[in-house]
Amino acid sequence: MDVGAKGLAAASNAQDRDTRTGTRAYVRSLGKWVPVSLLVIWVALLPRIIPGTSSDRGIFVSVAERLLAGDTLYRDVWDNKDPLFYYSLALGRTISPYADILLELTWIVSAGTAVYVLARKLGCNAPGALFAAFGMTPLILTGGLYRPGYTHLPGTALVLLVLAATVSRRFAAAGFLLAILACLKLVMLPIALLLILTVITLRKEWRALVPGSAAFALCAAALAGLLYARGELFPYLQAQLANVSYSQGDLVDERWGSFVGHLMLVASIDAVVVATAVAGAIVWVFAENRLAGGTRPVERRSLMLWACAATALVAALVVLGFTGMWDHHGQVLYVPAILVGVGAVQRFQSGFNVRSKLHMAALVGLIVALSGPTAPLRYGGAALISGPRSLAALNDVSAEARAVLSVGPSGTYARLGANDDDGHAYGLRDWKLACPRFQQYAFDTAEVLNSVAECLPRAEVILLSPAAGPKDGDPTWNAYWAKVESTLRDGYACEKWQDERICTRRDGK
């Protein structure tokens, strides 16, 4: 070996020693910091994840309660979400309404577990992976776009679990989880599928499609069989057709075109900041690698992570462009946001040291950007106001339920109102729901609204929420409401009950 070669070898050994020394120092310093930071994060976010019973969340609670009362989903009680979401909610409520909190916590921990597996497989050391999984991930998931108890959190958790199983070469498990995702949050299925294809393509492991596809087919067939046995399969498929009509309906501003119109509907400040931060990080990483001219190539595992982040971002934007309707739908952006966060920890983990205030400030700033800039305000509001209020509401019998129970312990009832439901069905398991759609909207079709008007006479009691009533300039809705008022006038006696009206059939039958 010549002198030059010996010099290079010595320099390489010295660099290795420095790297090992730096890594040990990093593990020691960050190892002490991680448990403290995780404790602070979880204390802060616990009030944030308490699901309430207002707005759409009240509808979810009522559907779950009707399932526990023995109703058939999509036939006896109707809402447009996927069946496993309602089943999981109903399963927890067989024990207690407070199980809603445990369910939310379970999804966050599941997402964190998936991220830990991903981070370790893709090059993060143990402290960095731990922080990414159970510090950064919960903060992103409960950021400015998050709504406690809604469907996007379980959908995001399952997408991450599918990706973790694929990266770990557990292809049958990935296929199984993919089928679960299809029946729990169908619109996020394309994101998971594209992530699987990205990993398989980069690894050139096309044989993995065989066990994955077989597991998916078996699990999907079992779930379809369950729905069929319960009489819910064909009504569920009809509900999906209704979802397509709803997402392409009048709520989208056609001046922008359908795709851009959907994106405009979800373009809140949080969604824009999250998408910009994700896109900026991805472009910066690949641009830096290109400018390095091959001297600092992106490591293969790191390349896979950043490629998955880019795929997830494109897939999320496509999903929003076809289905996005409300600001909280932007939570699909949390999949690429979390992957970018893992990539940041993996790429710069040696700098995330408690002694390096600049790096720590950059990490905190990145997490805020990836979660949405309004997230800190929402944590404060949850701790002081919404958290305690939601906790009390979970086990509270709503005013609507008390109104129905004031008539008697059992019978048949219908509800007229929108998503101002406060979980009215909690406490009414001995009552039979006469009309499956206990929530009606001005964007519903005339056929749907007429079906509600026609079933009303079957109810002994009709409950009218504050949202029930005529609407100016809406002939379809007002024609429906005229039929409702005719039914109430001819066969029911109505009286005021707090903010609601309750109407009882005159013949008492």
From TrEMBL:
The highest taxon in the source lineage is Bacteria
Question: Which ranges does the record mark as transmembrane?
Answer: 33-50, 101-119, 125-146, 153-172, 178-202, 209-229, 259-287, 303-326, 332-348, 360-379
Asked if the Swiss-Prot or TrEMBL record annotates the protein with the keyword Transmembrane helix, the reply is: yes
Keywords, sorted A to Z: Membrane, Transmembrane, Transmembrane helix
This protein's name: Glycosyltransferase RgtA/B/C/D-like domain-containing protein
| Taxonomic classification | Bacteria, Bacillati, Actinomycetota, Actinomycetes, Micrococcales
